[in-house]
Write a structure and sequence with these properties.
about 240 residues; alpha/beta; two-stranded antiparallel ribbon; globular
């Protein structure tokens, strides 16, 4: 059951802290009552993609008490969101900090404008899983053991699913986003780590648009994930 629009100003579900950021900000997850989730949705691993937090929060606030069936992390990189930076407080790209077979110590380059060059560099960390945000997420995953993760990013406008899973195909159909890879190497990424640990991970890349438009297009998809209407098998 959805919450009346007038009551969607606050989150009414219980949360718990699964760690702290480098700056000591609590890392928070919302979990279903009385059970473990099949799917975890993660927003704002990159701090300059905070529109993902806004859209996921809107979906979470739309679900009534007792209706939450899957898990949500509204912000995986709070230090970066506070600063408006892609990396965390130490300038590490958390999505290159996972302990994978292809982790690299080379700097990570990215672009800050749609048509600009990839000329801004971040660190992948001093070693794999060097950052508290990464360590905390890995510990949470080990504890709750979801069957799938949907990680939200912007603004490549696609669904990237290396497993070509039913879930990825359904999210592409529901969102209208093309099912295609992001198109560049991602050593040490969460997606690579998930593949190496046989965890179905779908990267959900928003288009470049206003928060209003993103909530309108993608919010209903996340409501259906969080309330259990969308399942790992793709229902």
């Amino acid at each position: 059951m959805l919450v009346e629009r007038s009551d969607r100003g606050i989150i009414r579900h219980a949360s718990e802290t699964y760690g702290t950021s480098h700056d000591g900000i609590p890392l928070t997850v919302w979990l279903p009552e009385g059970g473990m989730p099949e799917i975890l949705i993660l927003a704002s691993m990159h701090g300059d993609e905070s529109e993902t937090t806004v859209v996921l929060s809107d979906a979470l606030r739309s679900i009534g008490r007792g209706g939450l069936k899957n898990a949500a992390i509204l912000c995986g990189n709070p230090d970066g969101v506070v600063r408006g930076t892609r990396g965390n407080a130490r300038g590490v790209d958390l999505n290159r900090n996972f302990p994978t077979s292809n982790w690299s110590s080379d700097p990570v380059s990215y672009k800050s404008r749609e048509a600009g060059p990839r000329d801004i560099t971040l660190s992948p960390g001093s070693r794999p899983a060097s950052e508290p945000e990464t360590q905390s997420l890995l510990s949470l995953l080990d504890r709750i053991k979801p069957r799938a993760v949907v990680t939200l990013h912007a603004a490549l406008e696609c669904i990237d699913d290396a497993d070509n899973s039913c879930l990825g195909k359904l999210l592409s159909q529901r969102s209208g986003l093309p099912l295609e890879p992001v198109g560049y190497p991602t050593p040490g990424s969460f997606g690579t780590w998930a593949q190496e640990h046989t965890l179905n991970l779908v990267t959900y890349e928003f288009e470049a648009a206003s928060a209003y438009d993103l909530k309108e297009r993608h919010g209903p998809v996340f409501v259906d994930i969080l309330n259990g209407s969308i399942e790992v098998e793709g229902r």
